[in-house]
Structure formats: structure tokens, C-alpha cells
Amino acid sequence: MPQPTKGARLGAGPSHEKLLLANLATSLFKHGKIKTTEAKARKLRPYAERLVTYAKRGDLASRRRTIAILHDKDVAHALFEEIAPRYETRSGGYTRITKLGPRKGDNAPMAQIELVEELAVAAPAPAAKKQARKSVKTEAVAALAGETEDETTPAPAEAKEEAPEADADADADEKKDDDK
Fold first, then answer.
1. What predicted TM-score, i.e. pTM, was given to this entire model?
2. Shortest CA distance to 55 belongs to which of 35, 34, 70, 33?
């Protein structure tokens, strides 16, 4: 019986391995790092590094070959425009495999494969995300109340003068509510 010359097929046939590696490479370039089994990480490493080498070439044939492999034009575009320029001075070694230990369910050896240089386009900073959410919330509250920015931020001198009137109005409203 003839044996495959490429080694083990990761538990399935060659077509399944091809699709599996394409999906792993897409996730790697999309997120910068992925967690998978050691066997899959070892198979993925030369595959992903070959794609980065194609992206460094930057010609049309390389772009078409990469898009045919990755099946996601956005990830292929990011590979050519953002990832490949970072590795212009490197001649190889674009990925790193770190062993993580066994998986809890079936004790399979796990590993993390990542691009050597961190992706700068990953996620926005938590503080910036929180600030944006807070500003959207305050704008929504102001819109519901029918206020504009000019009405909500009075000058310091006006604030001192209006404070007693506002307290008197609030007290009068409370008395009316109590009478009802």
C-alpha cells in the first residue's frame, strides 16, 4: 500500500487537509495568533510562511494565488497591505509556535501559533472603547431630553445665579406632587 509522502493528513483526506489549513491560515492572518493542536500548528507554519512570502512579492500572480487559497478577500488584502510590509527585512521565520500543554477534554497537546510581530490593528484599547460608549450614551440621553450642548453647559457665573431659582422650582414641584 503506498504511503503519502507528505506525512500524516491530520485525520482526514487531502482535500479536508487543504481546507483545514486554508481556514487556519485565514484565522491566523485575521487575528494575529490562534490556539490549536501542535500537529496542526506544525502543518500550518510552512503554509502560512509561504503565503507571507507571496504577499512580500506583491505581484498580481501572487495576489491571485493567495486569494485562491484564503477564500477571504479582506484577509488577503490585509496580508498584502499590512502584514507583508512588516516583514520586508526578514527572509523567513514569520511565525512562532508556543506549546501550551494538554487540552482538558482529550489531553491533546495544544500550541499557540502567532505572527512574530504583533498586529497593530487588533482591537481598540479598552479605555477608548469605554469612552466612546460613554459619549454615545450621554448624547442619547441629551437627545431624549431635547437638550443641546449649549443648554447643558452654562457659564460658571450663570450657574451660580440659576442655582437658587432651580432649587425653588424643584421645591415647588415637590409640593405640588405631595398635594396630589
1. 0.62
2. 70
